Amino acid sequence: MRICLINSTRNRGGWEDATARKLASVWASLGFECHRTDVASVDDFGEVRANIDSYEPEFIVILAHGRSGERLDAIDAFEVDPAVGEPAKALLRSFAVYGQLLGEPQARFFLLVAVCEGQCTDSLAEFPTLNNLEGIIASRGKVERSALIDFVKEMFGQLSPSVVNTFETVEAAVAQARSQGAEFDLVEPARVTEE
To answer: How, if at all, do strands 33-38 and 2-7 pair?
Structure first.
């Protein structure tokens, strides 16, 4: 099984790159292939799309910072300098734009949103428009580094690296991790139908 990790934290807290390395190490220890891409601007998503197209991951993992407030629909991935006049960077604060920037992966995949308050309006409403998205795994609350790593160990420890996983097998793996205290859920995306 292949995993594509998109690290858009810019290591702002000084611990995020170490977390990305640890996640890759956990997946490798379980027999999964992981390809990591660090993104710092809108331009980097061209590389992300190319990697997804050639790599065809079964899991796409977004490691970013979330913000809470009236609406829990923002990933605070990139700092925005109004003087620079780059409104596209401001848009990257929204899951909806992440969905657009990822393009349309050709292979079926699950999305793990490793972001505080990842179950939010945008993650549940915008990413489901991607045709091959099988499910979104996201947190209900704040995600501590150690809790994320424990969740990944537990959930992916339930999956086989050599078998194509179905919604049901991933759902069972998430449920097992939840029984150990994880605050992540798997949500089946609603399909957009044409009239």
So the answer is: parallel
Q: Kindly report the CATH number assigned to the domain that includes residue 95.
A: 3.40.50.1460
Domain count, the chain: 1
Give the sign of the dihedral formed by CA 4, CA 158, CA 19, CA 34: negative
Single out the residue of 132, 134, 130, 178 nearest to residue 154, CA to CA: 178
Residue 73 lies in a domain: yes
Domain assignment of residue 94, given as a range: 2-187
Task: Summarize pLDDT for 33-71 with one digit per residue, the tens.
Answer: 999 888 776 677 788 888 888 889 999 998 877 655 444
**What's the whole-model pTM score?**
0.82
Is there a domain that residue 91 lies in?
yes
Burial of 98 (0-12, 13-18, 19+ CB in 10 A): buried
What is the distance in angstroms between the CA of the first residue and the CA of the last residue of the chain?
Answer: 36
